[in-house]
């Protein structure tokens, strides 16, 4: 049995998305900037896709910019708000310690360029409080960027409350909604969101397509990619019509089935959490309640995450230890360290991220094989030996 | 595939794994903070100076477990002096290679063997040169990546 439980890394493209994309390769292959009929047919496809995103996010189509993915959308959102802030002499940005590196590394770069960055500490719950944001706000704050839901531990942030607070203070508010889009209700108007990034391949759309929503009249977008006049001159490059059309179909489908999918995934998730936390000296990372319906993230004391993943893979289970974007790094997850977990515990992390395609049989399979693998690795581990003989204190 | 078949074999079926209560030398390198700890136990025949038995315990990634396992196989039944010349490169070659960012695991395996021999020498009053001065630069291999 092969179980795909790494949907936070990427998802399988849905049938609806594939069906929407296929005609774009050979029938609607035109360049939407071309004036002729073939080009204009592609332009119509693009326009419909934009309308779908706008309608589902509750904004105007002119507020939607298509990008190459979530990272580009994050980069452009931050760069734009920073440029707007600098013009007014405001060079302070608030974000959090557990953002995706598309945010953190862009902020590091902005810091080198003279911006002051405040990264909010993460409480044990994995949920930032609006109060933390309020306390960090300054007269020279030009942007607050808080992720909608965390990519590793799945905790959902109080976005409407933070949005209201920022709107009241007159500070632009960006949210990286890459993990939330298509899984949680998002209404940019009612949630007072000024900038939002999402990525299609996290909700059964194709890879290589992102969306940046930017509220009209708030932060003028600055280019990350210069060239032609596509996307109202804010993002050069011939539009990825098949990708964009497939993404819109996937988003439409995900939003239409959101409640149903959430009920199914939450039940599977809770079964996994209940089963896996039954393994001695294991802990669920992040609060259980305010959590993405498909996210499970645990630490097992005394073992290291990569060896756990390799053995799970041998049993047909595709999982990750954290973010796929950082798997090349030897450091433990910055998210788990931000939660206050010591290095040695953070090394033993396992993230299982579900989609509505997962079945109960698959969950049973994960629950059947994981305890034995953890035990096998603990038996090899000198750390576990010390823990069991009292030479090292159990932390979890 | 991230790892060679040999690495996967030694990871899934590690040789000489476990504790040794009557070891003549025990070496431990790495630390839990950087995600790798190797503990190596050796039993030495006093007359022949041959390593008659080896055991290891490792906390770490697949390649950390595989390099420990391979290192124990390469020194078992060999003279202690041979163990001292075991290089991380030889361990990597015996495993049909390791990904570049996992090479530090093989360095740890080499050091774990040396640490065990050093412990044996210390306990038995055997003098040795500075080639056995094991650098305790804890996280250097991790930090250097």
Summed up:
The complex is a heterodimer of chains A (396) and B (145). With 396 residues, chain A is an alpha/beta fold.
How would you explain this protein's 3D organization?
The complex is a heterodimer of chains A (396) and B (145). Chain A is α/β, with parallel strands linked by helices and 396 residues long. Chain A contains 13 helices and 12 strands. Chain A has helices at residues 15-26, 37-57, 70-87, 101-112, 130-136, 159-169, 241-256, 258-276, 305-314, 334-338, 343-346, 360-380, 382-388; strands at 3-4, 64-67, 92-96, 116-120, 141-145, 173-176, 195-199, 210-214, 282-284, 295-300, 317-318, 349-353. In chain A, the strands form 3 sheets. In chain A, strands 2-8-7-6-5-3-4 form a 7-stranded mixed sheet, sandwiched between helices. Chain A has a 3-stranded antiparallel sheet with strand order 9-10-12. In chain A, strands 1-11 form a two-stranded parallel ribbon. Chain B contains 6 helices and 3 strands. Chain B has helices at 5-12, 62-75, 80-84, 88-94, 103-123, 140-143; strands spanning 25-31, 36-45, 50-59. Chain B has one domain (5-143): Sufe protein. Chain: A (Alpha-Beta Complex), CATH 3.90.1010.10. In chain B, helix 2 (62-75) crosses helix 5. Chain B starts with a helix and ends with a helix. Chain B has 145 residues and is α+β, with helices and mostly antiparallel strands. The chains are: A alpha/beta (396), B alpha+beta (145). Chain A binds chain B through residues 302-304, 306-307, 310-311, 314, 328-332, 342-344, 347, 379-385, and chain B through 2-3, 8, 11-12, 14, 17, 19, 28, 32-39, 57-62, 64-65, 101, 104, 142, 145.
